[in-house]
Amino acid sequence: MITFLAGRAIPGVEVVTRRRYARTLAVGDTHGVVMVEPGAGDWLKVTLRFPKVQVWPAVIAKVRRVFDLAADPGLIGAHLSEDPDLAPMVAARPGLRAPGAWDGFELAVRAVLGQQITVTAARNLAGKITAAHGAEIQDEAARALGLTRLFPSPARMALIDVETLGMPRARGRALVSLAQAAVADPDLFGARRSLEEAVARLRALPGIGEWTAQYIAMRALREPDAFPHADIGLMRALEDADGVRPSPAELLARAERWRPWRAYAASHLWNFDPVYAPTPGAADVAA
Amino acid sequence: MDLDDDACYRAFCMRDARLDGRIFGAVRTTGIYCRPVCPARTPKRENITFYPSAAAAQAAGFRPCLRCRPETSPDLGSWNGTSNTVTRALALIEQGAMDGDDVEALADRLGVGERQLRRLFRQHLGASPIAVAQTRRVLLAKQLIHETRLPMAEVALAAGFGSVRRFNETFQQLFGRRPANCAARAGLRPRPGRGRP
Predict the structure, then answer these.
(1) Which of B82, B95, B109 sits opposite A61 (nearest CB)?
(2) At residue A33, does pLDDT exceed 60?
(3) Across the interface, which of A69, A75, A191 has its CB nearest the CB of B75?
(4) What is the tens place of the pLDDT at every residue in B167-182?
(5) Interface pTM (ipTM) of the complex?
(6) Distance CA A34, CA B12 (A)
(7) Taking the CB of the first residue and of the last residue of chain B, which one, N or C, has fewer CB atoms within 10 A?
């Protein structure tokens, strides 16, 4: 979990060390800092610095979602182990959880930024956009930790000039229209009646294809059965001895037996080797 | 809950951690409800009733155990691990969707009728959406009292209670004592001049 979050930490917004995750966070108009560390036993120790205690329940709910505290890895692992290809991966990481997201809009922006570039390049790009458009944090104690900015709000990003973003214009436009959609509908990344409905709704947004929609459903909506089947990392992880990879359709058919926890199967496949980090299929790119 | 009472009782006798958060046992003779992992002596079979959620035990008039601390049991959302209307509703409640106690708005967001949502909650959790949201606030307050040094007035706000008075009433009703007494019992020191309701 900490490795996954560290690899994606946006400079100024998140600071991750081996023993601690810290980040800035906005809950409504209230800005603050949340720090998460392993506790002395089977729990996480959470430290909050927010000017209003009323936001605590919302922040605690986010911590539970990001660190996937409601999952039962034993039950999920037992089911996934019925597939002989997954069994050794589950045995290697029996307690694996699926990382969630602090904020739906932020995760969607990250997913679009990550199209066609590496995790590190996407992170640097997110850092640049944050430095230019994220609100500054005044709290000196937070700044001392290297936490200087909030992730840009949808309202701010909706006004960005695409030309200044330093990325393909189509992708820049996708980001700006994503921000506009988030301003128009604050519940854009809220729960829906079903996974299918949530994915269909996300796909209606410009620059969001099946992979990105499933990825958002998986991490921001916490749908345990979401599955970005066109993912190149997933296909690579299932390469056979002759180096033949399953096609997206074959992968999707194969994933039937992983239901209702396909998102956890994806986590195991991505973790099998760091090379297999989430990578959108070609069809998904807003270029 | 898909377990019969005998299976639940065996889980309590074995202190089975796998069922922690999925079943709660309420003890008629003491008025207290516990987790399967409670270190206290397992009560007699005829004195214990099983509930699928803390909210159901609370709604039946039981108080949370001070030893096994039901507020620290694994999250409600894990009750069967798969996604459906009830788990989505629980996620939304955790994110504050029921802070206004508006069941109709919650049902709308999930695309089901209010009566259907109430029925699903009764069937799977044994409690109404309002009772679930209320129990969540109360158990968060209890956890904050045990684990932080926050003054009582701020515990009330942090746990999502509109006023300290309402917090005190609920607390008295559910725990059978005033919040300040509970803090004293937990060995915490409210700061002078603050935190007394």
Answers:
(1) B95
(2) yes
(3) A69
(4) 888 777 766 777 765 5
(5) 0.77
(6) 36
(7) C
Contact between chains at B140 and A57 (C-beta distance less than 8 A): yes
Residue of A103, A225, A231, A284 marked active site? A231
The domain defined by A2-284 folds into Endonuclease III; domain 1 (1.10.340)
| Helix and strand element counts for chain B (H, E) | 9, 4
Whole-angstrom distance, CA of residue B50 vs CA of residue B175: 19
Burial zone of B139 (CB within 10 Å; 0-12 exposed, 13-18 middle, 19+ buried): buried
A124: closest CA of chain B, how far (Å): 30
Angle at A160 between CA A156 and CA A163, to 5 degrees: 165
Q: Which CATH number fits domain B131-185: 3.30.565.10, 1.10.10.60, 3.40.50.1010, 3.50.50.60?
A: 1.10.10.60
What lies within 8 Å, CB to CB, of A60 at 6+ separation is: A46, B140
Domain ranges of chain B: 5-72, 83-126, 131-185
Task: Calculate the alpha carbon distances from B84 to A105, A143, B19, B130 in Å.
Answer: 23, 41, 20, 19
The separation between CA B45 and the C-alpha centre of its own chain, rounded to angstroms, equals 23
Helix extents (H) in B15-84: 54-59
Q: Is B13 a catalytic residue?
A: no
CB proximity list for B24: less than 8 A, separation 6 or greater: B33, B34, B35, B50, B51, B52, B53, B54, B56, B57, B70, B73
**Are the C-beta atoms of B111 and B117 separated by less than 8 Å?**
no
Query: In Å, how far are A61, A195, A202 from B110, measured between CA atoms?
Result: 19, 12, 16
Label the pairing between strands A44-49 and A30-38: antiparallel
Q: Which CATH superfamily is domain B5-72 in?
A: DNA Methylphosphotriester Repair Domain (3.40.10.10)
* B38 catalytic per annotation: yes
> Which residue of chain A is at minimal alpha-carbon distance from B157?
A54
Mutate to test the interface with A, among B68, B88, B106, B147 (most CBs of A within 10 A): B88
The phi-psi region of residue A160 (left if phi > 0; otherwise alpha if psi is between -120 and 50; otherwise beta) is beta
Tokens of B116: 């259907």
pTM: 0.85
CB contact under 8 A, B110 and A57: no
pLDDT digits (tens, 9 = 90+) for A178-190: 999 999 998 888 8
